[in-house]
TrEMBL record:
It holds the Pfam family Acyltransferase. SMART domains: PlsC (SM00563). It comes from the Bacteria. This is MFS transporter. It is found in: Cell membrane. PROSITE patterns: MFS (PS50850). It comes from Modicisalibacter luteus.
Length: 623
C-alpha cells in the first residue's frame, strides 16, 4: 500500500502533518518554559494550560465545519488547501521563532489547531474512497502507526532543536517547520481525486453545527457507540501522557531522557498494536479485538500502577537501563500501546464502514469533537484525583486501568460472539495452514445464505473464522444440547435442527429461526448435504435450501472446502472423532464463489457450483 498512489501520498501527507503539529507544540512549550518565563516572569502553569487550551479549542469550534467541508467538497482539493494553510502558518511561525514573538506563537498555535481540526475529518473519510473494504483495517493501521511515530519523532526532535545554542536553535527550528510543511504540501499533490457524493454549499455554524453533528451521530447508535469507544482511548491516552513526566519525576526519579524513552515505548507499542491488528484481522473488521485491546490496556496499566518507586535521585537514562524495574515500566507502557492499537483500529474502521458516503466526514468530525471533550474530561479527572483528593500517581494509574478493564468487560458482555469468533479464527490458524479465496463475495451488509460442502466437524469453525461477517449455522440438536458445549453453541448463534423422526415439528421451527435471522440482516451458513461426506465427494443437496429460499429470497454465496478429508474429524478410515489425529498444520483451502441470485438458484444448481468450487479449492492447495 505504501507504494501505491491511492494511499502513499495521503499517508505521508498526514504523517508529516502530525510530525509538524507535535514539533511546533513541543518547541513552543520548551521556548515558553525556558526562555519566555525567565525573561518576562510569566507563570509556567498558566502558560502551559493556555497553550493546551489554544490547541484544543479549535476542535470544539471547527470540527463540525471541517466535517461538512469534507462531505461537500472534493477531498483531494480540500487536503491541498489545508496543507497550504499549514505551510502559511509555519512560515509565520518561523518568523515568530526567529524574532522570539511568543504571543504571536500562541496565536499561531490556535491556527495550527484549526488546521488539524479541519484536516481530521477528511483524514479518515477519504480512506473508504481509495481503499477496498478488505483493505480498510490495514489502511487504518498504517495511518495510526504513522501518526504515533510522527508524534514521537516530533516530540523528540523538538527537544534536540531547542537544546541548540541561541540563533542556531532558532534557525534550525524555523527551517524545519517550513521544510516539513512544504514537503507535506508537495506530497499532497499526488493524492488522487476523491469527489463528494453530495456536493453543495457549506454554512459556517461553529456552535450550532457542533451540536447538530453530535445529534446526527446519536441517531446512528452503532456509530455513536464506536465514537464513544474511540473517545475512551483518547481519554486514557491523554491521562497517561499528561502525567508521564510527573511519574518519571516522582516514581522513576529520573530526568527528561527517561520521559522520552517511556514515551517511545508507548508510541511504538501503539504502532505495533495497529499492525498486529491488521495481521489478526485478515482484511476484515474484527470487532473481537476491541475488548481484547481494552483488557490488555487494563492489565498492563494495573501492573504499571503496582510498580514500586525506583531508588535514587535524578537518575540518567544510562543508569536506568541497569534497573529491572524501569524495563518493566517500559514494557507495561509498550503493552498499553499495543492494547491501544488493537482497540482503536477496529473502532475507526467500524465508523468508516457504518457511515454513508454523504455524511462519513461529519461522523469523523463528531468523533474529533467527542475526543476533544474527553481529553478535557481527562484533565478534569486528573485535577480531581490528584489535586482535590490528593491521591498518589499509583492510585491515579490504577484508576485508569480500572476504566480500561471495565470498558473491555462491558464490550465483551455486550458482544460475546465477536470475541468467540476471534478465538475461533486464531484456533483454526494454529491448527491449519488456511488459504482463503473470495471472502469479499460475502455481502458487506444485509442478509445472505452461505452453502458449503460438509467434510468434517471442523467445517463450521473454519467457515466462521474465514468469513468477514459473523455466521449463524444449523446443527443437529443432540450435539447442540451437549452439556459441555451448549454454552459455546448458544454464544456462536447456532440454530438447532432435529430430524422429523425425532421431532415432527423440528425442521419447521429451525426454518423459522433461519428466516428470522435472515430478516434481521444476518448471514446464515448451511451444509445442504445434511451430513458428513462418507467418501470425500460432494453428495446430493437436500431440499432445505430450496425451502429457505422460497421463504426468504436472499443472495446465496456458494463455498467449498478442501484439505480436511482424511483428518480425524472426517469420516475417512472410520467414524469422525473415533481415531487419533495424525496430521498437524495441514493445508486447508476455503473458496467462496460469487453470489447467486435467489430467483435463479435451486439445490441442483448450487450443488453443481459447489462441486466446481471444490475443484478450485483442491487446486489452491497444490499451488
Amino acid at each position: 500500500m505504501l507504494t501505491q498512489r491511492r494511499f502513499a501520498p495521503f499517508f505521508w501527507s498526514q504523517a508529516l502533518g502530525a510530525f509538524n503539529d507535535n514539533l511546533f507544540k513541543n518547541v513552543l512549550l520548551l521556548l515558553l518554559t525556558f526562555v519566555a518565563v525567565p525573561r518576562h516572569g510569566w507563570d509556567t502553569g498558566l502558560l502551559n494550560n493556555l497553550a493546551a487550551g489554544l490547541f484544543i479549542l479549535p476542535f470544539l469550534l471547527f470540527s463540525a465545519w471541517g466535517g461538512a467541508l469534507a462531505d461537500r467538497l472534493d477531498k483531494q482539493r480540500l487536503i491541498r488547501r489545508l496543507k497550504l494553510l499549514e505551510l502559511a502558518t509555519m512560515c509565520a511561525a518561523a518568523a515568530a521563532v526567529w524574532f522570539e514573538q511568543f504571543a504571536v506563537l500562541l496565536g499561531l498555535l490556535f491556527m495550527m489547531g484549526t488546521q488539524s481540526a479541519l484536516f481530521g475529518p477528511v483524514k479518515y473519510a477519504i480512506l473508504p474512497q481509495h481503499l477496498r473494504p478488505t483493505e480498510l483495517v490495514r489502511g487504518n493501521a498504517w495511518v495510526n502507526l504513522g501518526t504515533f511515530v510522527s508524534i514521537l519523532l516530533g516530540t523528540l526532535l523538538a527537544g534536540v532543536l531547542a537544546s541548540l545554542e541561541g540563533s542556531w536553535s532558532r534557525a534550525a527550528i524555523a527551517l524545519t517547520l517550513v521544510g516539513v510543511a512544504l514537503a507535506g504540501y508537495l506530497v499532497s499533490l499526488g493524492v488522487p481525486i476523491a469527489p463528494s457524493s453530495a456536493p453543495g454549499p457549506v454554512a459556517w455554524r461553529p456552535l450550532s453545527g457542533s451540536v447538530q453533528i453530535l445529534r446526527d451521530s446519536w441517531r446512528h447508535p452503532r456509530i455513536f457507540r464506536g465514537l464513544l469507544g474511540i473517545s475512551v482511548f483518547w481519554f486514557l491516552g491523554a491521562s497517561y501522557l499528561t502525567q508521564l513526566p510527573a511519574w518519571v519525576r516522582d516514581v522513576v526519579h529520573a530526568d527528561e531522557t527517561a520521559v522520552s524513552a517511556l514515551l517511545a515505548a508507548f508510541a511504538l507499542g501503539v504502532g505495533g498494536g495497529a499492525l498486529l491488528c491488521a495481521r489478526l484481522s485478515g482484511g476484515r473488521l474484527e470487532v473481537g479485538l476491541i475488548p481484547l485491546g481494552a483488557l490488555i490496556i487494563g492489565a498492563a496499566g494495573l501492573d504499571l500502577a503496582l510498580q514500586p518507586a525506583i531508588v535514587g535521585e535524578q537518575l540518567s537514562l544510562v543508569a536506568l537501563l541497569a534497573v529491572p524495574g524501569f524495563w518493566r515500566m517500559a514494557l507495561d507502557l509498550a503493552l498499553i500501546g499495543v492494547g491501544g492499537g488493537l482497540y482503536i483500529v477496529p473502532l475507526y474502521t467500524l465508523v468508516q464502514l457504518a457511515s454513508h458516503d454523504e455524511h462519513r466526514a461529519r461522523m469523523i468530525a463528531a468523533n474529533n469533537l467527542l475526543n476533544a471533550l474527553f481529553m478535557i474530561l481527562a484533565a478534569v479527572f486528573g485535577i480531581v484525583v490528584l489535586s482535590v483528593f490528593g491521591a498518589s500517581l499509583h492510585v491515579f494509574f490504577a484508576g485508569l486501568a480500572g476504566i480500561a478493564l471495565a470498558t473491555g468487560i462491558y464490550v465483551l458482555m455486550a458482544n460475546p460472539r465477536s470475541v468467540l469468533r476471534l478465538a475461533i479464527f486464531a484456533l483454526t490458524h494454529v491448527l491449519y495452514r488456511l488459504r482463503f479465496t473470495g471472502r469479499n463475495h460475502i455481502p458487506a451488509e444485509g442478509p445472505a445464505l452461505v452453502v458449503c460442502n460438509h467434510v468434517s466437524f471442523m467445517d463450521a469453525l473454519i467457515l466462521g473464522g474465514g468469513s468477514p461477517r459473523p455466521l449463524r449455522f444449523l446443527m443437529d440438536r443432540p450435539i447442540y444440547e451437549s452439556p459441555w458445549l451448549n454454552w459455546f453453541f448458544r454464544i456462536a448463534g447456532a440454530i438447532p435442527v432435529d430430524s422429523e423422526r425425532r421431532d415432527p415439528g423440528g425442521i419447521r421451527r429451525a426454518l423459522e429461526q433461519v428466516s428470522l435471522a435472515l430478516r434481521s440482516g444476518e448471514v446464515v451458513m448451511l451444509f445442504p448435504e445434511g451430513r458428513l461426506t462418507p467418501d470425500g465427494d460432494v453428495h446430493r443437496f437436500r431440499r432445505g435450501v430450496d425451502m429457505i429460499l422460497s421463504r426468504d429470497a436472499v443472495p446465496v454465496v456458494p463455498a467449498a472446502l478442501a484439505g480436511l478429508w482424511g483428518s480425524w474429524t472426517s469420516n475417512r478410515e472410520g467414524p469422525a472423532l473415533a481415531k487419533r489425529p495424525r496430521r498437524f498444520r495441514a493445508k486447508v483451502a476455503l473458496v467462496f464463489g460469487e453470489p447467486m441470485a435467489p430467483e435463479a438458484t435451486n439445490s441442483t444448481s448450487l450443488e453443481a457450483k459447489v462441486r466446481e468450487l471444490k475443484t478450485a479449492a483442491e487446486r489452491r492447495i497444490l499451488d
